[in-house]
Design goal:
By secondary structure, this protein is of the alpha+beta class. Among the domains are: about 170 residues, no CATH class; about 90 residues, no CATH class. The chain has eight helices and 25 strands. Strands 1-2-21-20-22-18-19 form a seven-stranded antiparallel sheet. Strand 9 and strand 10 form a beta hairpin. The chain is globular and about 70 Å long. The chain starts with a helix and ends with a strand.
């Protein structure tokens, strides 16, 4: 049969297009693996960066409060999700990020020291050094901020963002508060606390003795984090402690770690990046036995609140009336073991290196460690609500 040159070209084009389509489709799908041994259960997910849109999501869309990873993930139609950064637990601080948490350029938390962040830009994910800094300047005199989105103490210079709420909730007397817009330009100044926080803007709250008698009208706010994480470009950033792998090597500090945070085996969550842009998620489970007498009062309060729905009906809304025997029962259940051990930081770092990561970082772990895949939580049976989650949404093909 005779084939003219146009028909031959068309067939070659169709064949090439088919190969490209198959390759794109095949390699855009995530892979999920569970490694089981006598002591370990380790979940591993890999997928190409370009096939998924990364989101950093704050629980309850608010500074305070926590939410399970599965609850966060279900806001998206097709998602893979893990727990994110470290956070505070307790009645008055529950869910507040312990370090840096920035969502599309909006500050929920800012660590005012050197640390490492996982940065989510439009189409990239990277692990970089960060150093949060904030100050308010009156002419040439600058006053450094000492805390961000925290309850006021007398001596603190505080920066509040709209994540904190509508007002600063600081004491009325003894403070001066200056409001700034989203571009850090002064809006107004007040000679008292508990001022309104402008939407998308900031308020700096200072002890009165730190403010110059003249110059309030010239106040300028300066906020920086890192050249790698820009508030102006709407990046999202979350602190990881510590980085595990940088430039294809385990960082030296991992070998020298002395505290049990690094040397003991715990449930762990980590994220890494390969040289070709593939994202690697790792969640190692740990089911530990714990003595009832080791629970602190704060942990018991959080446990009661998290388990309220499992209590007898009379106690679900009146936690302060629960008999001590039921409290002890909950603590025993919380501390039961099934013999599954987590990983040390060095073991985790070595695993990320073995998985060909050139960069990797440790996220919050322990009972926070959770992986959501294929529409369900695939890690430990019961989730602990967390402060924030990393969501990877499948892009439309």
């Amino acid at each position: 049969m005779h084939i003219n040159k146009h028909t031959g070209w068309l067939r070659r084009y169709i064949a090439l297009a088919s190969i490209l389509f198959f390759t794109t489709f095949a390699f855009s799908e995530p892979t999920y693996e569970v490694r089981r041994s006598d002591k370990h259960i380790i979940h591993i997910v890999t997928f190409p960066t370009q096939a998924f849109q990364a989101h950093l999501v704050k629980a309850q869309d608010a500074l305070f409060g926590r939410e399970t990873v599965s609850s966060c993930a279900q806001r998206f139609p097709t998602a893979i999700a893990i727990n994110g950064g470290f956070f505070e637990m307790g009645e008055n601080t529950d869910g507040i990020p312990s370090a840096t948490l920035i969502l599309k350029g909006e500050i929920a938390g800012l660590a005012l020291k050197e640390h490492f962040c996982l940065v989510l830009s439009e189409n990239t994910l990277k692990i970089v050094p960060c150093h949060g800094q904030a100050s308010v300047c009156f002419g040439t005199a600058c006053v450094p901020v000492t805390a961000v989105n925290k309850a006021a103490r007398t001596e603190d210079v505080l920066l509040y963002t709209s994540f904190w709420g509508k007002r600063t909730r600081t004491p009325l007397s003894g403070r001066v508060e200056i409001a700034f817009d989203k571009n850090c330009q002064r809006i107004t100044s007040e000679n008292h606390g508990n001022c309104d926080i402008p939407s998308g803007g900031y308020v700096v709250s200072l002890p009165r003795d730190k403010v110059p008698q003249k110059g309030l009208s010239t106040a300028v706010l300066n906020i920086t984090l890192s050249p790698h994480c820009s508030l102006q470009s709407k990046d999202s950033c979350v602190t990881g402690i510590p980085p595990l792998v940088l430039d294809g090597k385990i960082i030296p500090a991992i070998y020298e770690w002395k505290t049990t945070f690094g040397t003991a085996r715990h449930a762990r969550t980590a994220i890494g990046v390969r040289a070709n842009g593939t994202i690697v998620l790792v969640v190692a489970e740990h089911h530990s036995a714990r003595d009832v007498n080791s629970f602190t009062l704060g942990e018991v309060r959080v446990l009661l609140r998290d388990k309220a729905s499992t209590l007898d009906p009379p106690y679900q809304t009146k936690l302060n009336t629960i008999p001590i025997d039921q409290v002890l029962k909950l603590c025993r259940e919380e501390g039961t073991t099934s013999g599954v051990e987590g990983l040390t930081l060095l073991e985790l770092a070595q695993l990320m290196l073995d998985l060909e990561c050139i960069e990797a970082i440790n996220l919050d772990g322990g009972k926070s460690s959770s992986l959501y895949f294929d529409g369900r939580i695939v890690t430990q049976k019961e989730e602990r609500p967390v402060s924030d989650c990393l969501i990877f949404e499948k892009r439309a093909s």
